[in-house]
Structure formats: C-alpha cells, structure tokens
C-alpha cells in the first residue's frame, strides 16, 4: 500500500490543499491520502486556530466525495506540540508494510524539522513546488511534485470571512456553507487556547 500523509493546520482546508493531495495521488499512484490536522504546530502560533474538532469536520466535508481521501485525528489525540516524526513513527508501527509519502508544500522545507534524517528513512518526502516560495534549507533526498500554481491561502480566507467577503471558489461548497452557517473565524479571537483542548 502506498499511503500519502498530508499534515497541516487546515485552518481552514481549501482547494489548494485538495489540489496538492490529488496531484500527489495521481502522480505517485497513491492508494490513499490521509489528511492529518495538527493540534499545536511547532513552527507558528495562530490565534485564529479553530478547535481541532471543527477543523476535522471541515476536512471531512471537503473530502467526503473522494474515495481515496481520508482524515485522521492522530495528532489531535496527542498532548503538546505536534511533531511530524511522532506521527510518522506511529503510522509506521500501525502499517509496517505501507510505503509512506509525506506531502508538504515547498515553504515547509524552509522551517526546521525535528529528526529530519529519521523522517527521510521512514518515508519519502514529497514537496509541491510553489512559485515564489522561500528557498528551502532541506533539499537532499526530497522528491519534487509539480502542480498547477494556486494562490490560495488559509490566512486570506480567514480575513475574507472577518470582512464579510466571498470565499466562493476558494473552498469546497460544503466547507463554505459550514463556515458561514457557524460564523467561524468571525468569532475566533480569544479562542486560541480552546483549540489546545480539542479532542
């Protein structure tokens, strides 16, 4: 089994995330892509981070029509900062015969990673090229994924929601409807700590 591991805050998930996952699935002939929302990212602090349970619901809404996409709350179930090496080791123990592919955006190669050498032993690091992205520090042993350039950012979606602007065609329809129905990101200031207590 060839399994793609796609981690991130997904705050919220958008069409750029889905395009990266689908491009990787097709290009690498992956049997499944697993979306893994992080509990507490080590490289940034986001005061607008939704609770993990809500981000999981948004992911499930976004991928519900794709039979090869699935979601895992493995990092939401762990306390403390979410380190990728811990997740990859856990999945490797659960599925020792699976060939693992860690899917990341090019910008993520510019930040420090814990146990980078061990990560490369346990899985293939696959980085999606992004036009104008920061020059990565770690390049050796990375497999590059070419995908259509998409200038969608979760931070822009949050700003649009706070300003009452449209997010149509930036996120899947079910995600847009859920965000608007629950007024998410319009009431998240001061709720950052609540995200740490997500399931």
Strand order within the widest sheet? 3-2-1-4-5-6
Oligomer: single chain
Fraction of residues in helix: 25-40%
Indicate the low-confidence ranges by residue numbers: 188-199
Distance between the termini: 29 Å
Annotation keywords:
199 residues; alpha/beta; Rossmann fold; 6-stranded parallel sheet
List the helices and strands and how they pair.
Elements (H helix, E strand, L loop, with lengths): L1 E7 L6 H14 L3 E6 L14 H12 L5 E3 L12 H11 L4 E7 L10 H7 L1 E5 L13 E4 L8 H10 L9 H9 L10 H5 L3
Parallel strand pairs: 1-2, 1-4, 2-3, 4-5, 5-6
Helix pairs in contact: 2-6, 3-4
Would you give an account of this structure?
The chain is an alpha/beta fold and 199 residues long. The chain has one domain (2-196): Rossmann fold (3-Layer(aba) Sandwich), CATH 3.40.50. 34% of the residues lie in helices and 16% in strands. The protein has 7 helices and 6 strands. The chain has helices spanning 15-28, 52-63, 84-94, 116-122, 154-163, 173-181, 192-196, and strands at 2-8, 32-37, 69-71, 99-105, 124-128, 142-145. Strands 3-2-1-4-5-6 form a 6-stranded parallel sheet, sandwiched between helices. The radius of gyration is 16 Å and the shape is globular. Mean pLDDT is 89; it is low at 188-199.
Compact overview of the structure:
The protein has 199 residues and is α/β, with parallel strands linked by helices. The chain has helices spanning 15-28, 52-63, 84-94, 116-122, 154-163, 173-181, 192-196; strands at residues 2-8, 32-37, 69-71, 99-105, 124-128, 142-145.
